[in-house]
Amino acid sequence: MKDRESLAQFQRQIAELQKKEDEYEVLKGAHIQLISTVENQERTLEELGAHLSESKLKMADLRDVSKSLRDAQWAPDKEASHCRLCEKEFSISRRRHHCRHCGNIFCHSCSDNTMPLPSSARPVRVCDTCHTQLLQRYSNSEN
């Protein structure tokens, strides 16, 4: 009788252990699935972080461009008697040219560069100083 009770108790314990084993397998599968989900989310966060960094750089560039456009005021032709860069006097043969980036007036030789600007659909005249600054900005944004 005692042996039968022990045998019944062992069989109940075996059944409980088998249930626990089944539950463990289910939890193990869920754990593997969660690990995969976490890895995918971490990759997504890294990609979003990279996009955010790029966006921040673009926003900084746009802020700089916007500020330079706000700060740049078109210099009146009548107030310019000399080139802003080389200081040569304007005449009939040495004409005035506005830099489309800073708005100042230069002679042809100091403003014979063209660059695409956000404010223009095609490349426009810029002075030597702005040309150098814009080239540096464009080369830094590509890196």
What does this entry look like structurally?
By secondary structure, the protein is mainly alpha-helical. It has two domains: 1-71; 72-143, Herpes Virus-1 (2-Layer Sandwich), CATH 3.30.40. The chain is built from two helices and four strands. It has helices at 2-71, 128-142, and strands at residues 97-98, 105-106, 113-115, 124-126. The protein has a two-stranded antiparallel ribbon with strand order 1-2. It has a two-stranded antiparallel sheet with strand order 3-4. The chain is rod-shaped, with a radius of gyration of 36 Å. The protein starts with a helix and ends with a helix.
Index terms:
59% helix, mainly alpha, 4 strands, Herpes Virus-1, 2 domains
CATH topology of the largest domain: Herpes Virus-1
Ranges where pLDDT stays below 50 over 5 or more residues in a row are none
Q: In sequence order, what are the helices and strands, one letter per element?
A: HEEEEH
Across the major sheet, the strand order is 1-2
CATH class of the largest domain: Alpha Beta
The CATH H-level superfamily of the largest domain is Zinc/RING finger domain, C3HC4 (zinc finger)
Terminal Cα span: 85 Å
Write the layout of secondary structure elements.
Blueprint: H1 2-71, E1 97-98, E2 105-106, E3 113-115, E4 124-126, H2 128-142
Antiparallel strand pairs: 1-2, 3-4
